[in-house]
Amino acid sequence: NLQESESENKLDGETASDSESKSEFGGSPPVPTSDDTPEVLNRALSNLSSRWKNWWVRGILTLAMIMFFFIIIYLGPMVLMTIVMCVQIKCFHEIITIGYNVYHSYDLPWFRTLSWYFLLCVNYFFYGETVTDYFFTLVQREEPLRILSKYHRFISFALYLTGFCMFVLSLVKKHYRLQFYMFGWTHVTLLIVVTQSHLIIHNLFEGMIWFIVPISCVICNDIMAYMFGFFFGRTPLIKLSPKKTWEGFIGGFFATVLFGLLLSYVMSGYRCFTCPVEFNNDTNSFTVDCEPSELFQLQEYNIPLVLQSVVGWKTVQMYPFQIHSIALSTFASLIGPFGGFFASGFKRAFKIKDFANTIPGHGGIMDRFDCQYLMATFVNVYIASFIRGPNPSKLIQQFLTLRPDQQLHIFNTLKAHLVDKGMLGGLEDA
């Protein structure tokens, strides 16, 4: 019996140090969660095996989630931003609840209250930075917003410092180590969840296409890897996720790259997807309208000689964004799954099946967004490194908020620079 117990621990990835830590903290791993499959589906699928029943439940709920995704896209970027924030809060709740359930026996004072307080502080900081950065004109026009913007970082620091002091005052003798452990748990959760959701918002404001295509690629890869693995999977991919197979991984990669190219081609032709979100002073509303950049204008590309004999074409018309979509879909299918593997390792460490049972057949919200957060970081870094340049509209907005003498100084400096470059004289002649 002892040997069997030790072997089971090894299979679950638990070592002696894990067991000692568990004993020291006085907690026991939470019981694995089970999916709350609707009774209607249970009755309709009662004659199927558990494997096929799970396939149908996941498929039906996946279609429902995709339809919901289409609806919120139709409602516009502001609704999307609200949904991202709701998802972030739910993911934070699921991770914090796991920590609370594992070590609940000590009834730590203020733990949950402080966790949610720190979430509020971090969101205030990040969303305040976003509003100031993207809607500078609106902020400068409204007196309360202008004051909040001017002292935003000081207010954010003061709020965090208040929570820090509350944590120190809540320390209880004999439980110091556990309380600092949970303090770290909260902050790592904030780093993973809130920071990544903030980057998703930044991607969204660059243009909805930078939000929709990466997310859709991750969804496509998840679905196609599951489909290829379900029907053709034979070779295990990684021990952390025993159901993942090489067949599903490779099939998901090719399907995702093809899907990314097609989706990018369709979306690149619509200004509502390609234009950044901006605030219009004349209409006092947020607008998504602009002259499409070169990324979203059809260009003619020469096909490599090796492929010309295969496809029979010498040139092809593509949007430059489609080339970037190859990088996005490649990351989504090759590196993105490691976010899921990381989550699988986390769940195995605490002997749970899913983060929660919010979505039947899928687990919790965090189970669906574990790869999305990693993808959001990559997209943000990709835009900053290869896409984004100086934004003239933002520079003009900041220029108009300066004092008249400062504006005049900048004007004279710019005029002298253009004269030296020979550009101003040419413009006057024209």
Automatic annotation (TrEMBL):
Principal location class: membrane
Species annotation: Corythaeola cristata (Great blue turaco)
Cellular component terms (Gene Ontology): endoplasmic reticulum membrane
Keywords: Lipid biosynthesis, Lipid metabolism, Membrane, Nucleotidyltransferase, Phospholipid biosynthesis, Phospholipid metabolism, Transferase, Transmembrane, Transmembrane helix
Descriptive protein name: Phosphatidate cytidylyltransferase
InterPro entries referenced in this protein's UniProt entry, alphabetically: PC_trans (IPR000374), PC_Trfase_euk (IPR016720)
Basic and acidic residues bias (residue ranges): 7-23
Pfam families reported for this sequence: CTP_transf_1
Assigned protein family: Belongs to the CDS family.
Compartment(s) where it occurs, according to its Swiss-Prot or TrEMBL record: Membrane
PANTHER family: PHOSPHATIDATE CYTIDYLYLTRANSFERASE (PTHR13773), PHOSPHATIDATE CYTIDYLYLTRANSFERASE 2 (PTHR13773:SF4)
Transmembrane segments: 110-127, 154-172, 179-201, 207-233, 245-267, 321-343
